[in-house]
Sequence to fold (968 residues):
Amino acid sequence: MSLTILVRALGLAALCLTVTSVAQETATPNGVVDNRRSAIALSGVTVYVGEGEYRPDAAVLIRDGSIVEVTSEDDIPEDYFVMPLPGRYVYPGFIDLYSGYGLPAPARPAGGGGAEVVESGPRALNVNDAIKSHYRAVMAFEPARDDQIPLRRQGFTTVASFMADGIARGTSVLVNLDHSNANEAVLASDVAAYYSLDKGSSRQTVPVSLMGAIALLRQTYLDAEWYAQHDPRPFADESLEGWLRTQSLPQIMEVDDWHQALAVHRVAEEFSTRYILKVGTDAYQQAARLAATGAPLIVSVDYPETPEVADPFTADDVSFTELKHWELAPYNLRLLHEQGIQMAITRAGSGDEFIANLRKAVNAGLPEAAAIAALTSVPAALIGEQQRLGHIGAGALANLVVSDGPLFDTDTRLLETWVAGSRYVVSEPLTEQEGRYQLATQTATVDLALRLADGRLRTQVLDGGSDTALEGASASVTIAQDLINLTLRMPGEAQTLRLSGWPTEDGWEGSGWTLARTGELPAGEEADAEDEAEMSTELPSPVIYPFAAYGSETLPTQQATLIRGATVWTNEDAGTLVTDVLLRDGSIAAVGDNLQAGDAVVVDGSGMHLTPGIIDEHTHIALFGINEVATNSSMVRMTDVVDSQDVNIYRNLAGGVVAAQQLHGSANPIGGQSSLIKMRWGGTPEELRIEDAPGFIKFALGENVKRSTNPASIRYPQTRMGVEQVFANAFSQAREYESRWQQWNSLSNSARRDAIRPRRDLVDETMLEVLNGERYVTAHSYVQSEINMLIHIADSFDFTINTFTHILEGYKVADKMAAHGAGGSTFSDWWAYKWEVRYAIPYNAALMQQAGVVVALNSDDAEMSRRLNQEAGKMVKYGGVSESDALKMITLNPARLLHLDDRMGSIRVGKDADVVLWDQHPLSVYAQAQTTWVDGIPYFDRERDRELRQYMASERERIINVILSEQE
Fold:
């Protein structure tokens, strides 16, 4: 018997011993029971001891499924069964904190059927079916031996399994990947609590949006806090009970991208918790900001598929962002590591490509020690299991990975995994298979050579008894565990021979054939290896900000700038004049003739026009979704879903737009809270936000709200009368809510200790802000009867509608709007695009202005938003509005409507340096913005734009050529 077969047999004996040694002791025996305890020494191995250090010529002592110590080969106690593994490397077993192993597949999301579903399921659970914090994976876990195999084959010995369904997903179960039953495989019943922003299988309509999911998450934190005050409970809610039980566990939150990661971190800060963020391969794009959150990360290596660029027409459809991300994604882990972020790595998403993708990350510059830690010690520490998992040391479980070389070398193979002292062979050591062989079938004999190259066995058909390859013949072989697959094609033969078989003492055999070893390979020969492109640790191109078209490696900076000799449209009493303007420290520092430049950059504005930056009172650009569909969605915030990489921000800058109100859509009477941003291209969503901006909310009237034109809809309201009642009910409930809190606040401290604090409700809180003048209303409006209705509602509850936005029948009720104090933001000449705008006229803005209404022009459209200057020019034609008043409709007036006119909308000393330099009259259709400054920073410059276009074209060509060269 050969040494290989002997070791294999002895290993099988050891396996039998170790399996029985950890048997469930409470089980009733049936038959003969083996109570022997195992003691095994893995001898002659190189052991990874952590932090990049190895111990060669060592022995790992294992007893009863745990590690006793790592010692030298000469110090193995006599009572240990010695298993020689010379030349092998031993690592701690890998741990995956993001697995669904052993659990049923998540339910498919339920279809809504076009109708709103409000009611939750029939059980005593949360009112929203997406809150499943009662779920305990341990109650559903069943070991699945077939599913263990691909995990162990990639080095995983332990996983945390959870059900990926819902926003609050309950707890995971920590299990070993061995052949034990569930009682023995489970290491911890509730190891972490899991969350996401995907409602999963919930059949309820709400939430349908990302912002709705975040709002539900926030409300559930508040509800759980309120629920916990009651003893006894006011009602049964096992989901909230589960939520309260699991808050002390590690909190793992899945996000789709870095935008969501930063958004949920704000939620974590609000509720004094800490998320471990499961992120994707785009995290490197904001690595520094993710590091600043202090959140640990669970990172996938699910790299994007290679874009299809062989066909030039297809290549045109691949975005610049896709190409850049394909190239830089393998550097994700390295760039995160360089920021000092605590990371664990998950197999999730990468499947069979996990090891290959992980090696790509190491080849891209991720230190080997960091990669191993991310698979072992870091995940163990994140769930508090660092004593028995993630290292090879005394007291740890004998969860090990055995390889035939350093883990991340290209030709290294994972040979075995050990789980709690049980041995599992995942592949055979290929070096022992090298040699000369003779294949004998029923009709012929063929000489073959098997040589190891690049971690794979290469097969050559030999020419007779020589060592020369037979021309025209080809063969390939794969060996996995106790199976060989061999394919052979001989010259002149039409068919390929395909054989499968099993090992013998001197080779393999199958049905009607044998493959017997006949000798060693000649010394010094190597198989022809396939060419494999090695990655450079240098980034192939820089990360740009934003990570999108027109992004830059470095962002423009704030600098003192003197714009000399331009025609300045001040929007102030000085009117329009030719003069100089000095921008310094983000503000307008001086306006006047012959200003001194000092250290300022001088811009020659001769023959050009300088205006205040354009402000769009109503836009939907740069948002991840705009509609939540609850009848009252006042709890959602557009600030949670700002897409700071939307190219429309850059296009707006090119059209002279410096700021905008990002509004909720018009799917419901009471929409969400607005986001007010400046076009700070390259910043994060938080950096786009206008500091200390007042709060706004979107209301909506008309056909969009009642949806009675949709025969499938049964959603309330379905009539304009119902819309009115929604507002009346919401404000009445808000006053009742206020009354409950006033009663609570009036209690003495001693009385409060014995009373239950009122439940915080994000919907009522927002409506109360409106009633108390702390949040302003922008109302989507068309028909005069509904405008009158909403004014009446506001008067009845003693607050003011701030703005009727894109109002088209304002000219009919302008006097009432002026008396009420409402402004009007309208389109210049949109009409006849649906029935309720059939009375729109292009004189609307002029007539409202004549009645004393503050009038702005808005876009409500990504295309129109970058040519609002032309929309203002139409007002000169329609209604005879003066040029200065027309310009104010897109600058100072929207600033007034947004209560930002003390900072924006005109060129006056002390205001924000948000200005635009035009090459022609700013209301002309031929005018082009040459430079747009926001806070004194030139975020758009036409010359710089030309450079960016050239850069993008060359980058696209370079990356496409890289892809094509790899495919050759």
User: Anything to note?
Assistant: Residues 610 and 644 are 27 Å apart (CA to CA). The longest strand covers residues 39-50.
